[in-house]
Design a protein that fits this description.
Number of strands: 12
Strand order of the largest sheet: 10-9-11-1-12
CATH superfamily of the largest domain: 4-hydroxy-3-methylbut-2-enyl diphosphate reductase, catalytic domain
Structural class: alpha/beta
CATH class of the largest domain: Alpha Beta
Largest sheet: 5 strands, parallel
Radius of gyration: 21 Å
Amino acid sequence: MKNKEIKIYLVSPRGFCAGVDRAIEIVKKTIKKYGTPVYVRHEIVHNKHVVENLKKIGAIFVDELNEIEDKSRPVIFSAHGVPKSIPKEASKLNMEYIDATCPLVSKVHREAENLNKKGFHILLIGHKNHPEVIGTMGQLPENEIDLIQTVEDAENYKEQNKDLAFVTQTTLSVDDTKNTITALKKKFPNIKEPAKEDICYATTNRQSAVKSIANKCDIFFVIGSRNSSNSLRLVEVASQSGCKYSELIHADSKIPVNKIKECQTIGISSGASAPEILVQNFINELKKTFIVKIKEVEIIKENIIFKTPGKLN
């Protein structure tokens, strides 16, 4: 006999954003144009399922360019962006490269560079060692940009002899970033902020969607990878917005059936690099144990598309 009935709030927008769609499309089009193999520096997006599928059609993933055996083959840079040193290295090695950096990350790169050219010292709000942060910091000389990770970092930051400006990683928690920005502005009232917010539309929309139903849920699941910043932020947002228990469901997760048995309502979302098939697989697993009633909750329609580079079309 089947177990109890559970209600699932399935929020939208969720899953792939325009930058992730574009990056995956770039790998596919590069393979179509140049044949196999093509190399990809770092995971094209933070999702094991996506990476494994691209490997099957001829993509080889490397951490650094010097690992590439056949330098006559093209290399793709991931959606997170790369430091300036990487295209330079590819050019030195006479490698054809295709840049799959998300246009919204490229916008932050240009912003940091332009402000720096105008004489500002740049503060980047973000998470240390995240590929996007490494890429953004690598747009400028080391002594021209500093990383601010927390409100404490902002409060303890020592003033430079230059005017200050800040930019942010695109996949941060909107609320946490707000607190860090408030602390920076309090300490440095003249700090220059971006003309337009750096946190990307998809990050903001997915967090808003989770917030809209978190307090109605006994438990909240976010489908995504452990190294996906935006997925981890969604887990945090769910618990900060009134859901007692929230959890990331990644490639190696076991579904916590016993915990779910104690619940009436479940919230489900997915990170911007998680394909929809993983959400459906998760729901199908739940259906094996529970009677599932799904209520779709859409807070906004996303219709943004980023074009792939002209040379691939």
